Amino acid sequence: MSNTPEKELIKSLVSIKETSKYHDLIIRCGGREWKSHRAIVCPRSKFFEKACDGNFRESMTGEIVLTEDDPDTVDRMVDYLYRLDYEDEPSIQYFESPEGPLLINARVYAIADKYDISTLKTVAVQKTTKFLKMSWDEENFIAAFGLVWNATPIQDRSLRELYLPFILRYSHSLYKNEAFLELLRVNGDLAVDVLVALLGEKQTQGNGLRPCNTSLEAIAN
């Protein structure tokens, strides 16, 4: 069966990414580099668009150095720009201690927010939702939602609203976890969100209603 036009396009984009043919932009991070294409990267990210179009060193050299980011997460971001998806399994080659999909997707969400790639944030939310419904990994859950509350703006609610019903569902275990309690101690925004969710649950239960609002409960179920 022949490929659809969309699949054929993605196949072509993946090919030029893998071969670096026609590249006119190099993204560097953590000793690694990605030979990329401005026509593909810049329209998808306002950060890269400004870097390449403005009177910056990057626009003249064709190189952008990301000094504060995790190379594996940058790799997933670049991968998404070419094939509209990314792998959320740990990279054995680069991780000293494998991280679970929850933390991987939280990192991708944070970098998508940082570099203004809204559709990548949407994919990260979809992958997170799927994993939360399939499996419970308390250690990675705590690490992931801690990163989300620390690395994204307070008004960015997509992943926060996704995590809250699972905090309520597994509260009997989380409230005995010192790592979870420490996050609440040091992050006021997180503590407030958890408190509001708990109070909302108690109030609806007291009124004979189902706990949490419909959308949050639907996510957790």
Kindly report the spatial arrangement of strands forming the biggest sheet.
Answer: 2-1-3
Q: Roughly how many Å apart are the termini?
A: 37 Å
Order of helices and strands: HEEHHHEHHHHHHHHH
What are the low-pLDDT stretches, counting only 5+ consecutive residues below 50?
93-97, 208-219
Q: Please tally the β strands and state the result.
A: 3
Q: What is the share of helical residues?
A: 55-70%
Derived structural class: mainly alpha
How much β-strand is present in the residues? 5-15%
Mean pLDDT: 86
Radius of gyration: 20 Å
Please give a structural write-up.
With 221 residues, the chain is mainly alpha-helical. The protein has helices at residues 5-19, 38-41, 46-53, 57-61, 71-83, 101-114, 118-134, 138-151, 158-169, 171-174, 178-186, 188-206, 214-220, and strands spanning 25-29, 32-36, 63-65. It contains 13 helices and three strands. A three-stranded mixed sheet has the order 2-1-3. α9 (158-169) crosses α12. The longest helix is centred in the last third of the chain and has 19 residues, at 188-206.
Question: Which characteristics define this entry?
Answer:
221 residues; mainly alpha; three-stranded mixed sheet; 13 helices; 3 strands; 64% helix; 6% strand; elongated; disordered C terminus
SSE order and pairing:
Elements: H1 5-19, E1 25-29, E2 32-36, H2 38-41, H3 46-53, H4 57-61, E3 63-65, H5 71-83, H6 101-114, H7 118-134, H8 138-151, H9 158-169, H10 171-174, H11 178-186, H12 188-206, H13 214-220
Parallel strand pairs: 1-3
Antiparallel strand pairs: 1-2
Helix pairs in contact: 5-6, 6-7, 6-8, 7-9, 9-12, 9-13
